[in-house]
Amino acid sequence: MKTKTIFAFYLILLLVSGCKKDNIFSVVTEEKPPAPKIIIESTVSGIVLNRQGQAVENATVTWGTQQVETNEDGFFIIEDEVNGEQAVLQVSKEGYFDAFQTILPIAQASLKTRVQLTPRLLNTSFSAANGGELQLVNGTNVTFVASAFQDEMGNTYTGEVRVFASYIDPTDPDLDEIMPGNLQALNADEESQILESFGMINVELEGSQGQGLQITSPAQLSMPIPTSLLNKAPSAIPLWYFDEATGLWKEEGEATLSNGNYVGELAHFSFWNCDVPYDLVEISGKFTAESFEINGKIKISAPSLNTQAYGHLSSDGSFRGKVISGTPLTLELIDLNCNDVIYTQDLGTLTADQDLGEINIPLTEEWVTISGTLVNCDDQAISEGVVVLDLGGNTYLISPKADGSVLGAFRACNETDFSILGVDWNAQERGQAKTFNITSSVNVGNIQACGTSFVAEMRIIIPGQDDYVVNNVTATIEPQMDSIPPIYKLNSTDIQGENDRVTYNFNFLNWTNNQNNQIWGMNFDKQVSGAPGNIFRFSNLNDIVALQYGEKPGEVIYFRVSGVTLFNEVTELSIENCTLELSAILE
């Protein structure tokens, strides 16, 4: 099978409507003043997934100065004023590496994106005095010099060094959802470039107390080149690190080709990348389909380089991105459900920025149109929300117009039905999914975003005191074999300080495997990081009621345990007759 290399396009953007305004400001200094920046009020919405394609709830999304959390379906919407040239979307979640997307905002358009989070796993540990070696499963190797570590304050560090790392395969078809940035870069001469990657690595160093560490002497990197890229790999290649503040890759150092590996020195740790730089130009355009919102993925190929770039349409069909100049390019719009090409155009060789204008997609008989209105619990039309459409296991977002009306179009291919549900961002409510048979035109009526609140919490009800509430709760189900019932796993992280936290892990099992005669059992364990002020231990966990539970993603899990004895390991205070409540949305 032929493997492709991916370079950056514009990196998936998001949805929602709203008024956007542009401002221009400049800063006067005694030196040469910087170029004016265009500030755009921009709205981004999208979905955050893990590497298995499952929704990630309660991930923190940062856009400009604003922060929101994803709901139980992994969806978010966020708005702020950002740099119109490029802005950084950051997604954080305990247990995962932070993700960064560099987005080129579009004025007067709502943007869509998808982000995949990579687990933050401990790969190795060693004594700082001895140095050590990181080895990843793909063959990537990093060698650390002995006695060459410092903490965040610049002090020499001599304790245990813990190494968290991951390799990012440049031939991964989901690279645009996984990697940081969008491969837009600045070379050593501060010139804008677009990159073609031959391999990336992310390394984070941590001390025994969870503090961040850096190196004081260069570490040696050896990274295998994917087999499909070996025949085009140059003998020497620049090294680039990712600047989280600007969302750009920056050139620093060089690697040389040796026995199928790129070998070089890394002066510090973040994301690192082995890349060939190219000059770039900007391309933009807009796909229209009458008044209907369509979903699709933009693909721009450079056949002579065997490279591709990907991006998603905004809610009004707009797209914008940086592409390689000086080589023939081809534009395609890909249907994610049918997995084929809706539209194609040869762009020729671009040497300057180009706006392709509006590109009309005729809604022929193979297209299905849907119409309806997004409403809240009072049946009032709302625009601050989203409609989630599920078609053959693919999830699409449709943003309502200012009056709450919803107009979408898709190609059914082999599917016979679809389901939709509504989400109200302001009220933090989601509706129940409804299924419709596919015909040429479907009026779904009112799409009510009502029924399930976005509540995921661990609540300890203590007699005579205020409830102790922890909001970071996730739920999964672990299927068992034969007649053994599944185990419900609920994890709650009590964050009490920057480095102080307790993670409680609860397991619930219905021993009878009978919904009409339930006998629940549970156990729990915990992990402590830092020095939190409250560390709880629970006992007398016998009186368990499953107030609500199911087995499908998106269903509410709600357990109540009465008569609990609560013991605080820090204060050594014991309290009887407490109640423990755990609720979450099943992932």
What's this entry about, in short?
This protein is mostly beta strands and 587 residues long.
Going by CATH, what is the homologous superfamily of the largest domain?
Carboxypeptidase-like, regulatory domain
Mean pLDDT metric = 84
Topology-level CATH name of the largest domain: Immunoglobulin-like
DSSP strand tally: 49
Unreliable runs:
1-36
Number of domains: 4
Q: End-to-end span in angstroms?
A: 33 Å
Classified by CATH, the class of the largest domain is: Mainly Beta
* Strand proportion: over 45%
| Helix fraction by DSSP (H/I, runs of at least 4) | under 10%
Task: Report the structural category.
Answer: mainly beta
Number of H/I helices: 1
Structural shape: flat
Structure write-up:
The chain folds into four domains: 5-118 and 280-360, Immunoglobulin-like (Sandwich), CATH 2.60.40; 122-278, Sandwich (Chondroitinase Ac, Chain A, domain 3); 367-453, Immunoglobulin-like, CATH 2.60.40.10; 457-585. It is 1% helix and 56% strand. The chain contains one helix and 49 strands. A hairpin with an 8-residue loop joins strand 42 (473-478) and strand 43 (487-495). The longest helix is centred in the first third of the chain and has 4 residues, at 175-178. The protein is flat and about 75 Å long. The two termini are 33 Å apart.
